[in-house]
Structure formats: C-alpha cells, structure tokens
Amino acid sequence: MNAVDMLSAARAEALFVSDASVTDHLTRQEVAALIRKAVLSHHGVRGCAAEVAAAYGNYPELAPLRMRWARAVVEPLYPVRRVRARSAAAQAAHGLAA
After folding, report:
1. How far apart are CA 75 and CA 53, in angstroms?
2. Which residues, 6+ apart, have CB-to-CB distance to 11 below 8 Å?
3. Which end of the chain has less Cβ packing within 10 Å, N or C?
C-alpha cells in the first residue's frame, strides 16, 4: 500500500466514524468537513482507526457495510493517482540511474 492508498484508507476510516448516515447524499465539501471533524474529535487518524476496529468488534455484521459505503463515497472524490515506476533504461536516458 502506498502513501496515497493509505490516505484514502484514512479518509474512509474518518468518514466511517463520522455522524453521517449511509443514506445521506454528500457533496465533496460535506465529506471533507465530516472527515476533518472526525479526525479532530477522535484525536487523529489513529483514533479513527481505533474506533473502526471497535466497531468491527462490537458490530461485525454492520461494520463491513458501513466501510463499503465510506469507501464508495471517498474513492470517487479523492481518486488515487497511480504512478508507474520508470524502467532502468528510461532512468538512464534521463540521467537518473545510480
């Protein structure tokens, strides 16, 4: 998992622990505000992750559904940009080879 994927996961976790309903139709601005509020109220992304873990323990039948919802909301709003590694030949051509 790269740093961008981790950021997407952290956003989904924060939305998961927010007070948003899965039936809400949220704008990007609303999602961003909910994520900010959740991160602040849970003392950071680790606090959000701990709450997600607790939810999976306390509500194992509901937590996966809420996480799928959170990821379905976050992923289109914050698409992960894939960066392809340059081949050794391309790096050498650009003077980047070691």
Report:
1. 20
2. 35, 74, 78
3. C
For residue 7, give both structure tokens.
């950021």
Other residues' Cβ atoms within 10 Å of the Cβ of residue 59: 12
Instruction: Say what the pTM is.
Output: 0.78
How many distinct structural domains can be found in the chain?
1
Q: Any idea which residue has 């194992």 for tokens?
A: 60
Under 8 Å between Cβ of 73 and 15: yes
pLDDT digits (tens, 9 = 90+) for 18-36: 999 999 999 999 999 999 9
In a 3-state reduction of DSSP, which class is residue 57?
helix
Residue 53 belongs to some domain of the structure: yes
Tokens 């919802």 belong to 69
